[in-house]
Amino acid sequence: MLGMRWVGLCAAVVVAASTSARAVPQLLPDDVIPIRYNLFVAPDLQALTWKGTVAISIDVKRPTADVVLNAEGLTFDGVSLDAAHKGTASFDPQLGRATLHFAQPIAPGPHILSIAYQGKIGHETLGFFVMDYQTATGPRRTLATNFEPASARKFLPCWDEPARKATFVLTVDTPNDRMAVSNMPIQHVDLVSATTKRVHFAITPKMSTYLLFLGIGDFERVHRTVDGVEVGVVVKRGDTAKAAYALDQASLLLHYYDDYFGYHYPLPKLDLVAAPGEIEGGSMENWGAIFFSQDELLFDPAISTERDRQDVFETVSHEMSHQWFGDLVTMAWWDNLWLNEGFARWMQVYAADALHPEWETGLQAQSIFENGKQADAEPSTHPIVQEITTAAQALQAFDSITYDKGAAVITMLNAYIGQDAFRDGVRRYMSRYAFGNTVDTGLWSIMQTVVTKPILKIEQDFTRQDGLPLVCESLPPVGMHLEENRFFADPRAAVRGAAQQWTIPLVVAVPGGPTQDLLLNGIANLPLHPPALVNAGQTAYARVLYPQRAFLALLPGVPGLAPVDQLGLMNDSLALGLAGYASVTNPFAVAQKLPADADPIVWRRVAAIVMSVDRHYLDTPTRAAFQAFARSLLAPVLAHIGSEARPGEAPDISLLRSALTKTLGYLGDEAVIATARRMMASGSGTVELQRAALEIAAEAAGPTEFDSLLDRARKTVDPLEKEHIYEALAGVEDPALAKRMIAIALSNEVPAGGNVDVLSELVQNHPDLVWTDAVPHLAEPAAGITRDEQWDVVMETARRLSDPARIPEVQAYVDTNVSPDAQRPFTGAVAAIRQNQRIAARVLPELDRWIASQGKQ
Predict the structure, then answer these.
(1) H and E: helices and strands count for the chain
(2) b/e for 403-421, b at 16 or more Cβ within 10 A?
(3) What is the 3-state secondary structure (H, E, C) of 607-632?
(4) What is the pLDDT of residue 18?
């Protein structure tokens, strides 16, 4: 029946444990070890080709006539050993390998392996690629590299595995009027001709291949010295004013990280390099030369918002933390990627709270943890420490489980261990493993010795098994009973088998009364009574399911709860409602109890919940009633904070005003839309409100407004401003105009690498249109979209679809385009289609009845 919920699932749903044998990673043979790469590269910026030579100092461990290393898309012109013995090469394109054959076995010991080769410079932003852009004086061209996890092999023959660390000496020929940037400072420059110079970089420390970087472009650099290290920001010519904010924050962060990690940054310089567009992965932590998508590094006071300011800081802090956690100490293999990314995601928040407490970034981070929980509830989830055997799987490991669940688990462990003891453990870890490789138990074993708590047990419970714990409360005659199970986005899809269990550090609190800390391991009986808040402080990685009586008992106290607990109550109740464990009306009941002056971050979450639920209403007759209800919930908050900025207001008020304005405009608030159009015409209002007005006007645009904004985007030569306008236009509601934006997204009109971001915006309002008009053309060369980005677009689009008839189409795409070892993430996309259909059929009618009842009260 419509609106039916699955009752009693907390005690019934279990999942089968995997019994498959652990797969063996496709590692290179260990009979030859790289020690040092002497690399020379001569790119042709016009022909988009390059020639290179590499002399690799190797240590041969056992006699062998064949040397196996990585190379992909390269043409070898000559191979020799110790400048005397010629060799031949054969290639395995599927594995990205080359085998060098010599007539006689190579004797154990040191040797020099020399390879002359050449390759083509692509437009996809992995490997060695070009990024073109316009300036007031004509077109410009940037060449750059981006290697993680396994694309260094596209630039040079190498042992392209994180544990095969070596030193690098890079020399490159560039035009005299261009700047070259790499991991280390320039050692000296030779003039080759009237138009060409040869740039020699200093030798790097011992590091993994994926951290090597080369950038060549019409750059300028601003810099300063911090703790003996030269910190620089490298931008395209004319953008130095946009680099000032990043330089200030990087300077603060370098000093902060030197202290936190207890290990002085070991390179003589650290450059932050801005791409003239977007790169795959967003930004990349190359040691000493971090490479950023432009919107993640540049801050232009004329067009950048408060959200941009905080995003730039968090991205810079994330990538800079990698200089220690990832670059100095590196995971041994990609199955422990969370050692890099989960920690950096956590550190970006921790550093922001330390250096900019006014932002309340730790509170905002609840959205990060929520992303991880949502991914962990799907059938495509995996353990944080997962099996990685191939390069395709390594690329897919950069997902919300690795980043967001990883950060949530580290947040939980930091809270349980204690901040000072946790930092002490990190410092010991850095000192012990500097310039080496390790696995995650190397860190957590140290933590356990620091605090003598069961850290390894907790960590392994959360990293070696998949799934999101569900803590269920029941109310016996006396006290309260807690029991663990597992949360599923669709409980009907749960597999029957052995029950899972986690060791969960948990806080239970009675508002205004007693608090109890416990390590939940299965079940617990507590001498507390409703209203009791389970997971107070929200540090435990879990969802909480209350009996409806206990949930209702909490509602009157919502205004007095800490903001983090207001968020936790809403987030859990929304997920439980959409999945069918509880009433979908519960998160809105919480929102109705919030005072207008509740923390701005909490109200921003309400706006985000409204938007996420509204997406499920696309093309349904009851959408107008839901939007009217949502406007009635949010409009008083905007009236309370005011529609215009006030002197000295907190940054989060500015962010809330922008969020409410955009959300109300999207919900069809005619007054907000009219104001946005006036602001667009007059250019009035703050930068935040101007950006909100742009997005509202673009969303509501007819053909005339659309053409005007498109003309504005085409005329500006600033890639950052151009990106903002194209992404706003991608939110257009009119399907005919959305079709035009799809064509633009699949061309080279948007700033380099920005196609995927535009398509991502289009998917929000037009998933079926993107599926029919964009997906079939993603692989066309003009789009310049990498294979992995194509897969991301397909998965994101499928997750928005609600017609089960699309499922065979998605499966056909997967069968045709995705290798079997990389298909697991698509199971979540297919499951999302079924869930969207179920939400439309069962959940929304319940919400509709509740909204209708609100008008009768």
Answers:
(1) 29, 28
(2) bbbbbbbbbbbbbbbeeee
(3) HHHHHHHHHCCCCCCCHHHHHHHHHH
(4) 42
Those residues whose C-beta lies under 8 Å from the C-beta of residue 247, and which sit 6 or more positions away, are: 222, 223, 224, 231, 232, 233, 272
DSSP bridge partners of 122 = 129
Residue 394 is predicted with a pLDDT of 85
What Å distances lie between residue 469 and 361, 488, 503, 743, CA to CA? 25, 9, 10, 43
Task: Decide if 164 contacts 61 (C-beta within 8 A).
Answer: no
Contact yes or no for 401/384 (Cβ under 8 A): yes
Q: Where are the alpha helices (DSSP H) in 452-585?
A: 455-463, 548-554, 563-579
Quickly tell me which residue has 């990698």 as its tokens. 322
Q: Which residues contact 726 (CB under 8 A, 6 or more apart)?
A: 713, 741, 744, 750, 751, 754, 758
What is the residue type of 471?
Answer: V
Say how many CA atoms lie within 13 Å of 469 toward its Cβ. Answer: 28
What is the CA angle 472-537-468, rounded to 5?
40
Q: What is the CA radius of gyration of the chain?
A: 27
- Model pTM above 0.85: yes
According to DSSP, the residues that pair with 468 across neighbouring strands are 487
CB-facing half-sphere around the CA of 355: CA atoms within 13 A? 21
Q: Report the DSSP beta bridge partners of residue 222.
A: 233
- pLDDT of 696-752, one tens digit each? 999 999 999 999 999 999 999 888 899 999 999 999 999 999 999 999 999 988 888
Looking at residue 673, its amino acid is I
Q: What local confidence, expressed as pLDDT, does residue 529 receive?
A: 82
214: left (phi over 0), alpha (psi -120 to 50) or beta: beta
> Which among 537, 530, 416, 512 has a CA at the least distance from the CA of 473?
530
Alpha-carbon span 16 to 80, nearest angstrom? 54
pLDDT band at 131 (very low <50, low <70, confident <90, very high): very high
Cβ atoms within 10 Å, residue 244: 13
CB 566 within 8 A of CB 558: yes
pLDDT tens digit sequence for 27-71: 999 999 999 999 999 999 999 999 999 999 999 999 999 999 999
Confidence label for 554 from pLDDT (cuts 50, 70 and 90): very high
Tokens representing 203? 């030798």
Query: Over the stretch 591-611, which tens digit does the pLDDT of each residue have?
Result: 999 999 999 999 999 999 999
Mean pLDDT of all residues belonging to the chain: 93
In tens, the pLDDT along 774-820 reads 999 999 888 888 888 999 999 999 999 999 999 999 999 999 999 88
| Beta-bridge partners for 40 | 53, 171
Helix (H, G, I), strand (E, B) or coil at 826: helix
**SS3 for 271?**
strand
- CA atoms of 742 and 739, how far apart (whole Å): 5
**Cα–Cα dist 482/478, whole Å:** 13
Supply 209's token pair.
């291949």
Tell me the per-residue pLDDT of 471-522, one tens digit each, with 9 for 90 and over. Answer: 999 988 888 899 999 999 998 877 666 679 999 999 999 988 888 999 999 9
Three-class SS state of 327? coil
- Positions of E strands within 751-801: none
Q: Between residues 800 and 20, which one has the greater pLDDT?
A: 800
Torsion 587-589-593-596 (CA) sign: positive
The pLDDT assigned to 645 comes to 84
**Which three-class secondary structure state does DSSP give residue 691?**
helix
Higher pLDDT, 627 or 26: 627
Helix axes of 366-376 and 600-615: crossing angle, nearest 10 degrees:
30
Task: Collect all residues with Cβ–Cβ distance below 8 Å to 113 and sequence separation of at least 6.
Answer: 55, 56, 58, 67, 79, 80, 81, 100
Please identify every residue annotated as catalytic: 319
DSSP state letters, 734-745: -HHHHHHHHHHH
Neighbours of 5 (CB within 10 A): 17
